[in-house]
Every structure is written in C-alpha cells, then in structure tokens.
Amino acid sequence: MKSISTLIDTYKNVVVQIATPYSTGTGFFLSEYKLIVTNEHVVRGNREVVIASPAFKKQIVKVLYVDPTYDLAFLSLPKDHRMDSVSINPDISVAQGEKVIAVGHPFGLKYTATQGIVSSLLHEQNDINYIQHDAALNPGNSGGPLIHKTGSIMGVNTFIIQNGNNIGFSLPVKYLKKTLEEYVNGNKELGVRCNACKNIAFEEEKTISFCPHCGADMIMISDIEIYEATGINKTIESMLLALGFDTDLSRRGPNNWEIVEGSAIINISYYHKTGLIIGDAYLCSLPKENIKELYEFLLRTNYNLESVTFSVRNQDIILSLLIFDQYLNVEIGTKLMKHLFERADHFDDILIDEYGAIKKVDYKIIEDHEI
C-alpha cells in the first residue's frame, strides 16, 4: 500500500476544479482516454465549462459527453497541460472496512483529501450499486475520484445524504470503464446517453431531438443554449468587460466571479436576497513575525481609505468593497471595481515587500453549493 501522503501528492496534478454559471465541482484526468471525467450534474446545461489546476492555465474546455443514468460527463483536455497519469481498475477487490481517500475541491478550496472507510458495497439506487463510505464529501467534491490503497481510482464521488454525518456514495469504476469503452468505440466527439433505452446517441446520429435508437425525446449537447447573464449579474459582467476581463473565465458558479489582478485574487459575490454586492480582494497572508507592525499599518490605512476596507480573516488579509444593487449602474460600478483592483494590487505589494506578508499562490475558481 502506498503512503497517504504519496497518494495525495500523486493526485494534485490529476484533479481539476470545474465551474459553470450554475454549478461547481471536481474532475480528474485519465490519460489513457485523453479525457477529464466528472459528474453530469456538475456540467448540466452547459456546452463548455471553466477548469483550473496547477498543471495548466485556467481555461474553457468543451463538454463532450453527458450521461444522466450514471451521472457521468467527459470533458476535452486543456491546452498545454502537465497533468499526471493515473489509472482506473474495475477489478480491484474491495471489502467493507477498507480505507479509502476522496480528493477534490470542496467549498472552492484549492485541493483537499479526506480519508475514510468503506461502509457498504450493496447500496442500490436506480439499479446501480454504489460504494458507501465515510470519507468526508462536501460541496465541490462532486466528480472527484475515490482512491484505493493501491493508488488506483475505484470510484467517482457522486452524492451524499443530507445531514448524514459523512455518509457519501461513489459510482464504482466498473460503470465508468463500461461507459468509456462505449463512448470511445462510438468514434464521435459529442454523445449523450438516452434515459429511455440507455444507448449512447452521438451528434451525427441525431434526428431532430429524438434518440436514433428508440425515438425518445433527447437534448443533445449542441442543442443547449449558450448562457447569457441577466439583471444585476449582467450589470456586473458589463463592468468586468469594461475593465478588460473575460467574463466566461471569471464565472465561478451562481452569482460569483473571480478576478486575478497582479498578485491579488478578487472574489465578487452578489447576494440577491439582501441586494449586496461584495468584492473581496484576497491579498497576502499574515506572517509569523512583525504582525504588530502590519496590523498598525492596516488600521492607519483603514482610517484614510475611501469605499474599501481592510480586514483579516484567519490568515488572509482582505480588502473589501460593498455596493447595494439599488445604487449600481455600469459607470459607477466600473469606477468602484477599478479602484478596488488597483488598490488591491498596490497594497499586496506593500504588505509583502515592507511587512513580510506571505504571497498567496492560489488557483481556486469556485465556491460550490451542492455535491
């Protein structure tokens, strides 16, 4: 058995974060098939998704295959990636009580791994047997791998029981292996598994919006409408466009955007129930030494700042902007956001160079609300 730390390190450049305008989750790279695997519910309603990893620059990739039956989806590969090779093994012998590891990106965190044990191999739902385990799964883990002690992928983390005290379920890789073979043998780029007859319908076989095998209604990938922001979200995206940012790459789930400006990471969130738009610029982290001098600088600077405010959350130093949607228009919002971005990059440099704060290295893109 490989050590836990070795397994976790192996998967750092295999597991990717996924973001859409509606949902977020995790995926993993299979070099044998030249695909990224995730859950169907993570990418549902999208032709393209944003992915990020330490192994490549954040970018948009195509959704190639969706499968509501097994809750699986396949994505195209990013350009110029350096993702490592791992394998799936449907013949792994798994017993109750065996240790497993779940890796992914819960709550928008960069990369986490949790250890647990297999509780049951007999949980059946919709004629599919799932692996039940107690490795903690949280929002954002959907589509990530469940790893066997040998280092091979044994399942795809798919769902949890709400308030179930770490009761999670993973699709065994035998279903993934079967689906991969069906998809590859079809020798087509875009495919959807029919909910009625369970055959894969490829785009070239499509007859209007009906399954070519059984005639059931189907929505093919090319039928999906391209997302367009509306309301306050559209205003926020117009502001970002005016500032020269790619809104497609910036989206990180419903009502959330992320911008990298210099060395600072800015998270923008819209809370429609309260009408509050918050821009949080995550700057550097607190150092271990000279913290008093740094705090004094933050307090002095806060006294003189306009429209933005410093705060400290755990180890993170944050510069924040608050706007109420009733006062928001593109012109005012663009001016305020530009001020935040400029001040964030400016103060990040000062805190690092003059006060010894720790530079943040981060590629997170999303904050999730469901597994």
Topology readout:
Layout: H1 4-11, E1 15-19, E2 24-30, E3 35-38, H2 40-43, E4 48-53, E5 56-67, E6 72-75, E7 99-104, E8 112-125, E9 128-133, E10 145-147, E11 153-160, E12 168-172, H3 173-186, E13 191-193, E14 200-202, H4 231-242, H5 247-250, E15 256-261, E16 264-271, E17 276-285, H6 291-304, E18 308-313, E19 316-324, H7 330-355
Parallel strand pairs: 5-13
Antiparallel strand pairs: 1-2, 1-4, 2-3, 3-6, 4-5, 5-6, 7-8, 7-10, 8-9, 9-12, 10-11, 11-12, 13-14, 15-16, 16-17, 17-19, 18-19
* Quaternary organisation of the protein chains: single chain
Q: Return the CATH class of the largest domain.
A: Mainly Beta
Shape: globular
Strand percent estimate: 25-35%
Low-confidence regions: 362-371
Order of H and E elements: HEEEHEEEEEEEEEHEEHHEEEHEEH
Write down the domain tally.
2
